[in-house]
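Internal tracking record. Fields below are filled automatically when a chain is submitted to the structure queue. Please do not edit lines marked as system-generated. If the sequence contains nonstandard residues, flag them in the REMARKS field before resubmitting.
Queue: standard
Priority: normal
Entity type: single polypeptide chain
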Amino acid sequence: NPDAVIEVADDGQSLWISPTHGPPIDLRYLANGGQLFLVLRPSSLLGSEEGERVFDALGPRALAGRDFVLQATGFEWMDIERLLVALYPNEGQPLDVAMVVTLRESKSNDELLQAWHDPKETGKAHKFYQGSPWAYYIPPAGGGRTFAVMPPKLMNEMLAMDGPPL
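SYSTEM-GENERATED OUTPUT FOLLOWS
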């Protein structure tokens, strides 16, 4: 009966059980305050004929998004295994974007820096690289596959936290 009301006692857990299997999304290397998170697997999506059709069906904004990711990260979508995108409010300006990229294959620091057009090393407690307009962080545990890209103000906040966002 679609009109029937079913009441479930709140045991403090049931309403918060994930509707999927597996671990929660890993938000390491992002700053606090993200309002929208997107997790994509670009190489898997574009690695099949069906995935390419899905991407094409998304239209010109999807192409613009792919170009945006290439410009910011220095890598094509087929090179990216996992892309975590977070959007942040920006005081009435366009949203700030932060990305955590996991590449399909490891890259040396020199290869990463070349892809980012040789940004300058900066940071006191934690080393990161400042380009224009992006800042880049290569986490020691990333194995040459994972890096973060975001505006410098978010980079400083993320590195000051020294852990995942709240």
